[in-house]
Structure formats: C-alpha cells, structure tokens
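Render this sequence as a predicted structure.
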Amino acid sequence: MIGKLSTVSSACLLSFSVLAADSYTIDSRHTFPSFEISHLGFSTQRGRFNETSGKVTLDAAAAKGSIDISVNTATISTGLAELEEHLRGKDFFDSTQYPAMTFKSDKLSFQGEKLVSADGVLTLRGISKPVSLHVEHFYCGMNVIRLKYTCGADAVGTIKRSAFGIDKYAPAVGDEVKLLIQVEAVKD
C-alpha cells in the first residue's frame, strides 16, 4: 500500500512539474536574430533576419525549459540588396536548398529564476553543431500594450561559419561570426 501511494504521489508530482512549465510562442514582430562579421578587416558588417518562428517553454522555479526556433534565411537584411542576394545564394546560406536555420535547446541555465544561458544545437545548411548562448538580459512580465504575459531576452554567442560549410572569402571576410539574438515570446 505504501509503495502504491508513493508511486501515485511521485506521478502526481511529476505531472505537476510538467504542468508548471509555461509555453510561449515567439513574437516574430519583436524577434530579429542578427550577426556581426569582419569585412576585410576594415569594418564590421552587420545584418539581421526578418522572419523567426518557434516555441519556448520555461519553468523558472524548476530551472528548466526548452527552445525551438526557426529562422527563415531568405529574409536576411543588410541594407544592401545586392549583398543580400549574394548571401542568399550557394556561396553562403543557399536559402533555396536550406530555407531555415534552427536552434534547439533543452539545456537552459538559471540563476534563481533568471535565465543566464542556453546550450543547444544550431543547424545551418544542413550541418548541426553545438552552440552556447549567453543571456545578457532576461525579463518576464505583463506586456502593457498587448495585455499578454511576455518574456524577452538578449542572447549572444559566437560561431565559426566554416564549421557550417560557409567559407567563401575566409579569412579575409571573417570566419568568426558574432550572433546577437533579441527575442520576445508571448505566453500561450
């Protein structure tokens, strides 16, 4: 009897933990992953992607969660149409064959209830590699305009583009790429 009661109690607690995680949908109007890369050593070239979708689950009390984000590579924006067309092509993102870049993580780190990092897998051009993102800013609260509970974060990480098969003009155009991801997600 005690064994059965213990099993039922454990199952209830596990169910409660699963139910305690909140689900969020990426707000594509306020989520624009961007990048910085050295341009021939003269300057830093910047760009962003204009279409992102995905889901986030957070259980800050249990220090758990997950991220599943997809970025449409064809929506790259640099301020220069000719460069954008080249970046969409086979030398770089090859957006026709690989329309999405994804980041998936189920290893989130918290300090108290504050998200501080996300370790996951970035898939770009069909190649998947581990990536760590440091969360520089994290805030959850009521969005006073939309009147919906929202969480937002600014995350930063660095990758080598050659690790994803994007090595055109390297090392003149930098191999190291700084990722900057500002994200907002609305509670479902």
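Summary. The radius of gyration is 19 Å. The helical segments are 2-20, 81-88.
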